[in-house]
Each structure stands twice: as C-alpha cells, then as structure tokens.
Write a structure and sequence with these properties.
single chain, mainly alpha
Amino acid sequence: MAAGLALTGTGTLWAAQAPAHGSFWMNLAGPFLLTGTVTWIFIPVSIGALVGVTERDAGVASGLIDSSQQLGGAIGIAIASTVAATRTRDLHAQGHTIAGALNGGFHTALWVCGLAALSAIPIAFLLIRRTDTTTQATAVQQGKVPQPAPAD
C-alpha cells in the first residue's frame, strides 16, 4: 500500500508540472502510467480490511469498504474541484489567460491530491497489524475464535 501511495502521489505531482500548451505524450503519458498504480492502494486496503472477518459478516464488511471508497472519492473530487475552480478564478481575475488560469487551477488541485497521497504513507505504516493475520484468519475459519451470540 505504501508503494502504491508513493507512486500515485509522485505521478500526481509529476502531472502538476504539465504546461498549458503541452502534449499528452510528452507531458502526461508518464504521470498517467505512474498513477495507474492506484490499484496497489485499493487491493491491500481490501485485503487488510477483510482478513479475519467471518464468512457471515464478509458481505457487510465488503459493502462498508466499497461505500467508504465511493464516499472518499466523492469528497476528494469535491475538494479537488473546489481548489481548482477557486485558483482558476483567482488567476483569471489577476489577468491570466483562460488557458493559463485553468492550468494553474489544475496544478494547485493536483498538488493537493499528490501531497495527500504522500502524506498517507506514514499512516499506512502505522496501521500495519503487529499480529500474524494468517494465523488469525485460520482460527476464524476453523471456529476457534469466539463468535458473537446470534441475535434473537
């Protein structure tokens, strides 16, 4: 997960360097390939969240993960869009061309997103489980871990 955060954050910051009149192949193809490593974030999160979950609760846990990712994505887009629109408006009011103002707005939004990804790296290391999850998952599957009493 930390590697995915590092690569995705780096790719996003690289994309923030694209000039207003750049080309896709020269300025964005590399960052797009690098940010494609975002799956290295989502898959470990899913695995880590579902290890040790009982078969009975797997559907609920999976639904919570999916809902959290959707909600987080919506909040992230709202923040990035607000940052980009605000910066674009400010730059245009200062006399920049439309292309220059839009580019500046996207640069600022990409910096915010890239730095958010990079700042999550220490959090990923802090959340590493110190117990052996394989042993824990096997114990749950074999019924050796006490299960909550069924609801009446």
